[in-house]
Amino acid sequence: MVVKGFAREIYTYDPIERPQQGDARLEEGQLFLPHQGVYKNERKDKVKVVFDASAETKGLSLNRALFCGPKLQTEVTHVLTRFREFSVAFCADIADMSACIHLNSQDAKKHRFIFQKGGETLMHVYEMNRLTFGDGPSPCVAIATLRQTARDFGAKDSQAVKSIEENFYVDDWLKSTVTLEEAEILAKDSEAGQF
Questions:
Q1: Looking at the domain assignment, is residue 2 inside a domain?
Q2: Where in the sequence is the domain holding 61, given as residue range(s)?
Q3: Tens digit of each residue's pLDDT (9 = 90 or more) over 99-120
Q4: How far apart are the first and last CA of the chain?
Q5: How many domains does the chain have?
Q6: What is the pTM of this model?
């Protein structure tokens, strides 16, 4: 996460020392999210960090304070039906879709987490600067961003924009065409958004 630029270290502190006036730990508006590592495959060589924005402290959670927005994802049955419509089928996935979307500094402050490096006594406080998968509004924000990007960069090709709007299920694009050439053109035209 840090290496990819999705998070940055904000400060470190010694948990034994009491915070004094001006200590970064007393900064207003911080919210710390619990997190855990989840292996992405059976080889256990790739770990994905998952945040729990629904975790409660004193009856409050980040997800309770967020407006989730409308359900924007296309019904999966519609996407799958169109996927099987023609003889040439292809699919694509937007890698780390949530991580493609930056958080503003006020929202990033609500996405902090604490990490203790092995063998150290210091606590490291990091701040996510990208949308996290565990936030309630993440699907709505990600899909709205994808569709707006398609409209912004696909003005010359309404077929590509329509395909992105109708044939995505969250971050998975499932499409079929009559010919291989048509599929190649549609895939090439859809890359303009750089997702």
A1: no
A2: 7-193
A3: 889 999 999 999 999 998 888 8
A4: 18
A5: 1
A6: 0.80
